[in-house]
Amino acid sequence: MDYNFIQKFHSGWAYLALLLLVVAVVNSLIGMTSKKEFTAKDRKIALFGLIATHIQLVVGLILYFVSPLGKASLGNMKDAALRLTSLEHPLINIIAIVLITVGWSRHKKLATSEAKFKSITVFYGLGLVLILARIPWKLWL
After folding, report:
1. Could you tell me the pTM of the whole model?
2. Per-residue pLDDT tens over the stretch 73-104
3. In the chain, where are the structural domains located?
């Protein structure tokens, strides 16, 4: 695969993944605060956020291992921009996606709608904050 295609796909898919993640967090927050019943629609919204972030992770890992930037920057951790793209962005985003996955897995084991919404709100919300904190904004926008 072409490096430029993978990079553009990773950047483009990020918009969709972030949008679906925001929708999942807002939907769960509204469900939790309004004490509504957790429905199949709520489950699907959270599932789409989970799937989109996992696709983003897989594409990001492929990009990381084929990127000339990743290999060149490993010996130069004093450069903040290189450190962000080669270490901080991948590591923090893996942690974020683990949190999102924990939120999804945890909600399936919970009995009440309020607990399900809370699990998704908290874990997806933490994952979203971590992702937003480590996006290389100068490269992306």
Report:
1. 0.90
2. 666 667 777 778 878 899 999 999 999 999 99
3. 3-140
